[in-house]
Amino acid sequence: MTTQFKLAAALILSGMIVAGCSRPAETTEPASAAQAPATSPDVHRFTVGALQAVALKDGEMALDNAAGQSPWADTAGVTEVLSQTGDPKIHLSIQPLLIQGEDKVVLIDTGAGGQMGTQNKLPASLAAAGIQPGAVTDILISHGHGDHVGGLVTNGALTYPNAAIRMSADEWAAIQGDAELAALVPIITPRVETFEAGAQVTPSITAVSLQGHTAGHTGYEIVSGQDRLLYIGDALHSSIISVQRPEFVNGWDYDSDAAIATRLALLGRGATQNLRIYGVHFPFPGLGKFQRQADGFVWVPETPAQP
Residues near 37 by Cβ (< 8 Å), separated by ≥ 6? Predict the structure, then answer.
């Protein structure tokens, strides 16, 4: 984790410990409990086979292409790639994914909890999707960085009190050993369930090891009938830089060589299999496919990017 991310994690945790490590009594709210859905630009509904899916906007990070801001050290290379957009800033959206079906309400990652310069839109996005926090049955964590676990806790208590919090065993070990996350651990421990790479974590979702970004970084493949969607976590951050120049070293990665290999493998598999991809940091709603172009790849969004 970079200095920027560690500082953000510290801010998240300072908010967590205000109310101590207690958590509210679990409600008996059924998984199907839902509010009346509302129309919101921060909610994008789609399907994966028989499953209902919702992209939920949490916020956005806008970074300068400069040391201390951008994770890519090759600022000249990034400038060249971004020149096609007409915007010199690096824009990374944050959108957790909700999957409903098979008596499950699954939330993949929980956003930044309002830290890292983001807007903490997830609670309102979830409400607009018609889902109450107590209705979430399972939370799947890709990895332990602040923009993915920051929303697990609100005012020192579990945000989703009835949900099992699932992540890879390697990632949980890394979180437990990270001093920056020390206040988070006792709050979530009673709900944490770990798994090994390749595990079937719900009837329709399989954990996919995507090595390099963190010690136990995990993607999730959602399958229903003939349809499938791959949630790629932080294997690729930018729909432009990471896709078009996957060989660029990213300072946020735990193991750069492994992360580059993972990016190349994902791009190749996605393009060859015409695989539907969910990019948690790609322009909202993060849905699309990788396509081969000349000697590289480009991102082809399923819908126009939404603000």
Answer: 128, 129, 130
Tokens 């926090």 belong to residue = 133
Flag whether pLDDT at 271 surpasses 90: yes
Is the peptide bond prior to 123 cis by the omega test (within 30 degrees of 0)? no
In whole angstroms, give the CA distance from residue 115 to residue 118. Answer: 6
Please answer whether residues 81 and 298 qualify as being in contact, where contact means their C-beta atoms are separated by less than 8 angstroms: no
The token pair at 205 is 């979702």
Nearest to 47 by CA among 275, 285, 253, 229: 229
Q: DSSP per residue over 162-227, as a string? A: T-EEEEEHHHHHHHHT-GGGTTHHHHHGGGEEEE-TT-EEETTEEEEE-TTSSTT-EEEEEEETTE
pLDDT tens, 207-221?
999 999 999 999 999
Report yes or no: 55 and 222 within 8 Å, Cβ to Cβ.
Answer: no
Q: Which residue has the tokens 């969607």?
A: 229
